[in-house]
Amino acid sequence: MPNVSPRHKPGHPLAFRVTIMETTLIDRSTQRVLPLMPAILLAILVGLNLRPSMAAIGPLVERIQADIAISYAQLALLTTLPVLAMGAGCFIAVALARRCGADRLIGGSLLMIALADGLRLAGHGVATLLITALVAGIGIAGIQALLPALIKQQARQRTPLVMGWYIAAIMGGAALAATLAATLADLTGSWRASLALWGLVALVAFLAWQRRGPVLPDTGKDKEQRDRRASLYRQPRVWTLAIFFSLCASGYACVLAWLPPYYMELGWTESAAGLLLGYLTALEVVAGLVLPALAQRRADRRPVLFIP
């Protein structure tokens, strides 16, 4: 049983002090005790689908160029378009979530990723690759904009732990896609099939999301919360963080797109170049687990950012 002890302050809702070994979450709207592990597993399953659409491209560049007439500029768009879609789509996703609900939008986003990956099996030209890259990016944007908010609503003081697993899953998906890209292409005899197979993972995540029950519910947004969100845009710290994370994402996108092709130009095999990107991303998985655990223990979490 988890070690949970109540603490109550007059005028404040009942809260709980939770030990490091806690295995439950508290639903503040109903005061129900919810299991922590299903929330972590669902976040992991969804997070695994947010990078393979981009990470699997790099190790297959030579096969793609040998099969279709595609330039390096067009290859760059296969990772640039999803990143641009993620940046612009997050604003649209928040607005759409107010109309149709965050849970439905996340489910629809998973379907978009599955569809984009699957269509790569049937496509035979540059246009198909570019369109599917854009569609996948829009789906990724919807999830990245909304899922962390649902995690925070339910996890509360355990948010760094659940988010750590979610971020680790995102990086883990990239590592798996990069590492397995050439192997899957060899096994299936097609680089298209290697890219399309990740659509099955997205489909499984969609089915799990639809059957998640009370895990990561969408509790809705009241007017006060919307007003508070609007006021964030007037705070300098928000823009500072936006610039910081934009620079991090830009650097990561460049590595994701060009690290394998660069080493293949130096004579490395596709499998070796994919493994290199996989190893690099695996380190990010470790960081995604360790750093949130450290941040969980600190009131001021800024020093944790300087550890890397």
UniProtKB/TrEMBL annotation:
Record carries keyword Transmembrane helix: yes
A Pfam family recorded for this sequence: MFS_1
Q: Which InterPro entries match?
A: MFS, MFS_Cyanate_Porter, MFS_dom, MFS_trans_sf
MF GO annotations: transmembrane transporter activity
Q: Which residues cross the membrane?
A: 33-50, 70-97, 104-123, 129-151, 163-185, 191-209, 238-259, 271-295
The alphabetized UniProt keywords are:
Membrane, Transmembrane, Transmembrane helix
Say yes or no: keyword Protein transport present: no
| Domain Major facilitator superfamily (MFS) profile span(s) in chain numbering | 39-308
Alphabetized PANTHER family for the sequence: CYANATE TRANSPORT PROTEIN CYNX, PTHR23523
- Please identify the protein, giving its name as recorded: Putative transporter YycB
